[in-house]
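Lecture notes, unit on protein representations.

Consider one protein chain, 203 amino acids long.
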Amino acid sequence: MIPVLAFYLFATLVIFSGVMTIASRNPVHSVLWLILAFFNAAGLFLLLGAEFLAFLLVIVYVGAVAVLFLFVVMMLDVDFAELRAGFARYWPLGIGLAAVLLGEMLAAVLAWREGGIALEGRTAPVAPDASNIVALGQLLYSRYLFIFEAAGFVLLVAMVGAIVLTRRRRGDIRTPNVSSQVRRRPQDSVVNMRPPVGQGVEL
C-alpha cells in the first residue's frame, strides 16, 4: 500500500512540476520547478529498484546541470521580453516536434505491450543476488570497457575543445610574465627612503 501511495505522490509531483516548469514566466522559478521534477523522478526510479539511475539523476542533473542553469539564468542579463517576442512564429515547428515525440512514445508503448524486441543471446548475464549498481559496474569494466573508455575520451575531447574555443587573447589587457615576476628581487621593487624631517616622500 505504501509503495502505491508513494508512486502516485511522486508521479503527481513530477507532472505538476513539469507543467509549472513550462508555465512559469520567471526563468529562475522554472529552473527550481525543474529541480523538483528531477527529485521526484529520482523517487520513481527508487521505487522501480533502479537506485543507480536515481543517484545519477540527483548527482548529475540536479547537482550539476540544473544548478548550472540556475546560476546562468541568475547571472546573465538576458532580455526575456525580446526572446518572447519572436516565440509565436516557432509554434508550427514546436507542434510538429511534439507530434513526432508523441508518435515515438506511442510506438514504444505498443511495442512494449506486444512483447518488445527479442534479445535472447544479446543480454549480458546478471547474478540474481547482485544489485543493479554492482551488475552495471561489472558490465562497464569488463564487457563494455573499451566503449566506456571511448565515451570518456570523447567527453575529454569535448571539454578541451570547449576550453580552447572560449579562450581568446584580448588586446586591451596586460598578461603577466610569470618568469620575470619569479626572478624579481626584493631590492628591485622596494626602495628604502630617508627623507628629512618635514619633507614628504618623492615618487
